[in-house]
Design brief:
With 341 residues, the protein is mainly beta. The protein has 4 helices and 25 strands. It has 3 domains: 114 residues, no CATH class; 102 residues, no CATH class; 94 residues, FlgT, C-terminal domain (Thrombin, subunit H), CATH 2.40.10.410. Helices cover 8% and strands 40% of the residues. It is flat.
Length: 341
C-alpha cells in the first residue's frame, strides 16, 4: 500500500533552526562518533546512543531545509555523524547509495522510514475509540437489534442501529467500560472504551442496517457506535510543554496496576491542561507517607517524589491523554505523577 510520508507539523520546525548550541544537552558516556541505522531503529533509540536525554534530539540534529519539513526521512543504511562541538547530529548518505536526494516523496511500506517511537505498539491506539465522555455517549449511535434476533453477532452479520448519521458509511463499535477517575479530585474524566469492531452502512433509515466488517469481540444490542476516524501517520517529534503540566497516571492498558517500558498509559491531563501530541512528560513516583514514633509522640511525613522515567504523549482528549512509557527505573504505577521535565 502506498503511503505518503507526511511533513512534520510546522510549529516545531523552529526547534531545528538557528545555529545556537543546544543548552544543557549532554552526550552519553559512551557516545560513538557515528552510527549506521538498521531496520527497527527509532529516532528516540538512535538519539539515546549519543545523548543522555534522547528526547531532546530535535535540538541537536542538523537538518537541511528539506529535512526540516520532515525529519522522518532517515532510513536503514544511513550514517548518523556526531559533531561533539555542539553537540550536533548530522544525517549522512545511505551506505552503498550514490547521488541520493533527501526530500519528501512517496514511498511504499517497504521504505521503512525511521519513526520517532515504535509505531507497531501505538498503531491500534491512533484511531480506535479510547475515551468517551458524557457528550460523546449521548451522541453515539446505538445497536437496537441483531439480524434473526441473535443475542450476539460477528463478522459478516447484520445489525440495526438508531441515530446513524446520514452520509457516514463507516462506523466503529465500542462499549464504555470503567470510568477514569482523577486520583486527587475524584472527578470522572471519561470512560474507557472497549473497541469491539467496525461496521459499514448498507441501508440508511430509521433504523439503519449495517454489516459487521470485523469483530474483535461479540457485538450485541446496546453497544454504541461512532464514525470511523481516518487513518493517521504519527510524525511528531518529542518536545517539552511550554507551560507547567500537572497530572497523574490513571490507567494502564490491559487493566494492570503496574507496568514498565514501552507500555501504554492514560494520564489525567489533556488539551484543557495544555497537553498535545509529541509532549514528553517526566514520571514521578509517589513514595507515600512515613509514620515515625518516638518518646515525643507520633509524626507523619510525606515522602518526596522521585523522578524515574519519561512518557511520550501520542493521543490527546479533553481531560485525558495517552502516552508510551519510553524510559523507567522500576515499575510504573497508577497514581504516579507526570510533570513537565
Amino acid at each position: 500500500m502506498i503511503r505518503i510520508i507526511f511533513p512534520l507539523i510546522v510549529s516545531i520546525a523552529t526547534l531545528f533552526a538557528g545555529a545556537a548550541v543546544a543548552q544543557g544537552v549532554q552526550l552519553a558516556d559512551d557516545a560513538p562518533d557515528s552510527y549506521t541505522v538498521v531496520k527497527g531503529d527509532t529516532l528516540w533509540g538512535i538519539s539515546g546512543r549519543f545523548l543522555k536525554q534522547p528526547w531532546r534530539w530535535p535540538e541537536v540534529w542538523r537538518f537541511n531545509r528539506d529535512q526540516i519539513r520532515n525529519p522522518h526521512l532517515i532510513y536503514p543504511g544511513q550514517v548518523i555523524l556526531l559533531d561533539r562541538s555542539g553537540p550536533w547530529l548530522t544525517v549522512g548518505r545511505r551506505v552503498g547509495v550514490r547521488d541520493e536526494k533527501l526530500f519528501p516523496q512517496v514511498y511504499t511500506d517497504s521504505g521503512h522510514a525511521v519513526p520517532s517511537i515504535p509505531l507497531h505498539i501505538i498503531d491500534p491506539f491512533l484511531t480506535q475509540p479510547l475515551i468517551v465522555d458524557q457528550a460523546r455517549l449521548a451522541g453515539s449511535a446505538t445497536v437496537i437489534a441483531t439480524d434473526t434476533s441473535r443475542v450476539y453477532t460477528g463478522t459478516g452479520d447484520s445489525v440495526f442501529a438508531k441515530n446513524v448519521r446520514e452520509g457516514v458509511a463507516n462506523w466503529q463499535i465500542y462499549r464504555p467500560t470503567r470510568p477514569l477517575e482523577d486520583p486527587l479530585t475524584h472527578e470522572i474524566l471519561g470512560y474507557e472504551a472497549q473497541y469491539l469492531g467496525s461496521a459499514r452502512v448498507t441501508e440508511h433509515g430509521n433504523p439503519s442496517t449495517l454489516e459487521i466488517v470485523n469483530a474483535n469481540e461479540e457485538i450485541g444490542v446496546g453497544d454504541l457506535m461512532m464514525p470511523t476516524e481516518p487513518p493517521t501517520v504519527f510524525s511528531y517529534a518529542p518536545h517539552a510543554p511550554e507551560q507547567a503540566v500537572e497530572g497523574r497516571l490513571v490507567s494502564i492498558y490491559r487493566g494492570v496496576s503496574e507496568t514498565g517500558r514501552l507500555n501504554v498509559v492514560a494520564l489525567s491531563a489533556g488539551t484543557q491542561a495544555g497537553v498535545e501530541r509529541g509532549h514528553v512528560l517526566a514520571l514521578y513516583r509517589n513514595r507515600g507517607v512515613a509514620e515515625y514514633k518516638d518518646e515525643d509522640g507520633r509524626e507523619s511525613f510525606q515522602l518526596p517524589e522521585k523522578r524515574y522515567g519519561l512518557v511520550f504523549v501520542f493521543r490527546v482528549f479533553d481531560k485525558v491523554s495517552y502516552g508510551l512509557v519510553m524510559e523507567t527505573e522500576g515499575p510504573v504505577a497508577i497514581g504516579d505523577s507526570v510533570r513537565k521535565p
